[in-house]
Specification:
Elements lengths: L11 E2 L5 E5 L2 H4 L11 H12 L3 E3 L5 E2 L2 E5 L13 H18 L3 E4 L2 H11 L10 H4 L4 E2 L4 E2 L10 H15 L7 E2 L11 E2 L1
Parallel strand pairs: 2-5, 2-6, 6-8
Antiparallel strand pairs: 1-5, 3-4, 7-8, 9-10
Helix pairs in contact: 2-6
GO molecular function: 4 iron, 4 sulfur cluster binding; deaminated base DNA N-glycosylase activity; metal ion binding
Keywords: 4Fe-4S, DNA damage, DNA repair, Hydrolase, Iron, Iron-sulfur, Metal-binding
Pfam family, one: UDG
Length: about 200
């Protein structure tokens, strides 16, 4: 599948990722020059927090991924300044959804208000009871429909505490059973495990 736009930034990272970082579009979070999501100024700020939180090995235009995948809701570079149109987001939804289902990560980390709202509305049952206030939701663990969701405030808006708050949340999350898998093998003949989430 390839979008019909001239310039786009496809997903990047580990195809067997546990963590899927979801941004808005390349005009907002970078990647136009490198072809890799989250490689602009604010993207590098996010990458540094992900290194400190254990999700990346290194920061750069080709970051060292550690069971992590980066992608955008809208992978095409928007025409002109600003955000893509609503119809353009709707058209690009199929690419993002196919990517999300192919990666099948356990934890979704939407970056910024639009990505957080989209993930809450489409991959959780919490949208109607969650106010999308990114200062409040930043680095907070929310249970989704088969996913854990950890919203991230847009790095271009971070204050001094946002980096540490995200790092602490990621380190805590990684020390738990974030996969939320259960072994149903005990109900089957034989000794083989059968994990489901």
């Amino acid at each position: 599948m390839r979008p019909s736009c001239e310039q786009f930034v496809p997903g990047y990272g580990d195809a067997n990722a546990d963590f899927h970082v979801v941004g808005d579009h390349p005009g907002r979070h970078g990647g136009v020059d490198s072809g890799v999501p989250f490689t602009g100024e604010s993207g590098f700020r996010l990458q540094r927090a992900l290194v400190d939180g254990g999700l990346l090995r290194s920061v750069g235009t080709e970051p060292g991924m550690r069971r992590t995948f980066f992608s955008y809701l809208h992978m095409c570079l928007p025409d002109g300044e600003g955000d893509p149109s609503e119809s353009s987001y709707g058209d690009m939804e199929r690419f993002f959804d196919a990517e999300l289902r192919a990666i099948a990560a356990h934890v979704l980390l939407p970056v910024g208000e639009r990505a957080t709202r989209y993930v809450l509305e489409n991959y959780t049952a919490r949208a109607h009871k969650t106010t999308v206030d990114m200062e409040t939701l930043h680095a907070m663990e929310l249970r989704g429909s088969g996913f854990l969701v950890v919203p991230i405030r847009d790095p271009s808006e971070w204050d001094d505490s946002d980096h540490e708050k995200l790092v602490d949340a990621l380190q805590t999350l990684r020390s738990t059973d974030f996969r939320r898998e259960a072994d149903l093998g005990r109900f089957l003949a034989g000794d083989d495990p059968y994990f489901v989430r």
